[in-house]
């Protein structure tokens, strides 16, 4: 099996409820992180085999937020992306799945992690009883 290494790690800003990041979609923040990692490592966008991003709150944000982030970051349409929704373990599960894919020889380079949706952007439902 192949050895797997983490080449770079980044963290998006953490905001407060109703704060300055309240209206920014998670996919925009994810795209900023992806762009920064590609620039700092010198990896060309077409070298990425896949993007795996965890995101817990996905209601109302459109299909596959990981794909949205990868497209916004300038990755080619040919690079697949998958959003993992496993509540608090989504980002860690994305890294775990990336590790498995690389160890098994299914991929060479995967961008994996999590992008947090702001509670302010996600729809809320009130049950009236």
TrEMBL record:
InterPro entries membership: Thiolase-like, Thiolase_acyl_enz_int_AS, Thiolase_N
Limits of the Thiolase N-terminal domain: 4-115
One family name in Pfam for this protein: Thiolase_N
Keywords carried by this UniProt record: Acyltransferase, Transferase
Keyword Phosphoprotein listed: no
Domain of life: Bacteria
GO terms for MF: acyltransferase activity, transferring groups other than amino-acyl groups
Family under the similarity heading: Belongs to the thiolase-like superfamily. Thiolase family.
Name of this chain's protein: Thiolase N-terminal domain-containing protein
Source organism: Vreelandella sulfidaeris
């Amino acid at each position: 099996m192949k050895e797997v290494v983490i080449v770079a790690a980044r963290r998006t800003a953490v905001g407060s409820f109703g704060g300055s990041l309240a209206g920014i979609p998670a996919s925009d923040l994810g795209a900023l992180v992806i762009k920064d990692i590609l620039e700092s490592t010198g990896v060309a966008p077409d070298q990425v085999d896949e993007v795996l991003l965890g995101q817990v709150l996905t209601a109302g944000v459109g299909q596959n937020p990981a794909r949205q982030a990868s497209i916004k970051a300038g990755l080619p349409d040919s690079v697949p992306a998958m959003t993992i929704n496993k509540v608090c373990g989504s980002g860690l599960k994305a890294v775990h799945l990336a590790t498995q894919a690389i160890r098994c020889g299914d991929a060479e380079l995967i961008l994996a992690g999590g992008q947090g949706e702001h509670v302010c952007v996600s729809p809320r439902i009130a049950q009236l009883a």
